[in-house]
Protein 1
Amino acid sequence: MRISRRASDLATSSTLALDGRVKALIAGGADVVNMAVGEPNFPAPAAAAAAAIAKIESGHVRYTPAAGTPELRRALAEHLTATREHPFAPEHVVVCHSGKHALSGALLCLVEPGDDVLVPLPAWVSYVELIRLAGGRPVEIAPIGGARPDLAAIRAAITPATRGILLNTPNNPSGYVWTRDEVRELSALAIEHDLWILSDEIYRRLIFDDTTFTSPLAFAAELPGLAERVVIIDGASKSFAMTGYRIGFAAGPPDLIAAITRLHSQTTGSPNAVSMAAYEAVLREEPPEVEAMRAEYAARRALLLAGLTELGLEYVRPDGAFYAFPDVRPYCDERGAAGFCEDLLDEVGLALVPGDAFCLEGYVRLSYALSMERVEEALVRLGRFLESRRAAT
Ligand code: GLU
């Protein structure tokens, strides 16, 4: 069968592919610490499970409006108003099957063939592929020190073909949280050059120490015209540990939301009714599990960062998400970080994602969404591996 160029050119999600490979190894009896996938190892909050079960038992599990139930859209608008320093109404929100679904829908509705979209690196695996799928050209902008946005380089990369910017704070894979000044500067640039900002805020709730999260919408009052060009992507997967529920949303100007809704009405119908009930339950009142999970991530993060520092690895301090992204260039051969990760898996049974997956060679992503014991074990294995590399040179 002849496969379309569009699909042939599309790469498989490398994080999901690697996770599948590692899980198969573990199922086959291999002793592997899986730090590859960014998936919480906690169950979803009890309130989510209870609402999902009640929904199923009610028997009213039917198609819903393509944009999601009015109740969930209202709950999301209230949640956004409370968390983004900007007022939202239900018509600013479309419920989607996940953050990824919201992102692909937004890109398909915003990007014309030949448009440039700026992607500050490192960037989560799906951004560049989804921009290409929409017919656009991802323009990758190298960071400072492996994680910090280079705003001068972002400004210099803008051309008449540039239409938008992909912002992701806290960042996957680096955990870097953009400062308020950085987000403000980017927002001002968007206005100056008539660009949209697609702001992936899926890790917003996972912030550590005294760091604060800033959405570009925080500057909407100060920068007229900004609210009309910002689209927020978020969902239940990370902060609520609801990955398998597959539920998220896009929020932005009503004309874009209506366009995404039209697209999804044709491609995916309506979002999952059971998951929408579960999502609404955790949005109405934040369940205690959410802060408990965040506190547990904070403890794991402290352990991991202390371990990486002790091993002599350099990294930009990750103040959000559940990742660290150290520089492993001193330990790489000509195969780069991909070879480093291959050998690490083969020799000591530790699975990490090479930076190439995030368009940045020479770094590796460690996910600490796993127990303290496994984080400790991962550090022991990484230490052993680095030691053998040092001994070999
Ligand atoms: N977002 C997670 C990750 O980066 C899950 C896998 C994926 O969708 O890429 O590992």
Protein 2
Amino acid sequence: MKIGICNDHAGVEYKEKLVKMLSARGFEVVNFGTDTTDSVDYPDYAHKLAEAVEGGSVDLGIALCGTGNGMAITLNKHQGIRAGLAWDIEIGRLVKAHNNANVLVLPARFISYRKAAHIVQTWLSEPFEGGRHQRRIDKMAL
Ligand code: RB5
């Protein structure tokens, strides 16, 4: 499985740790984020990740910024993206089980790295439930 990851300056540290954790678990990770703490504009990175997920060069995406909201709002402008913001483990589970989020968004300034890593692992391993949730997803597109 290939995972794209993107971040702004607020997400650099967690991005680096997540790349190591995911690589050690056998995932191929493609980095679309900035690699320094110099201030940048999150949409520049969100669009790159969204295009990669929509185009199929990666299977899923993870995005990090300070609150997660800038990334989530930008990613969800793309019709092929369902980006879900998760700040605890149960929300990370439900954003896959119910919303089948193809991009997980994390608020790097508001959760510990330990929690971020746990949310990522939960979201990756949780199956989508389908059924009524698929019907609701089918109604999302404009
Ligand atoms: C950057 O300071 C911050 O605005 C950004 O990381 C994010 O929180 C935006 O939604």
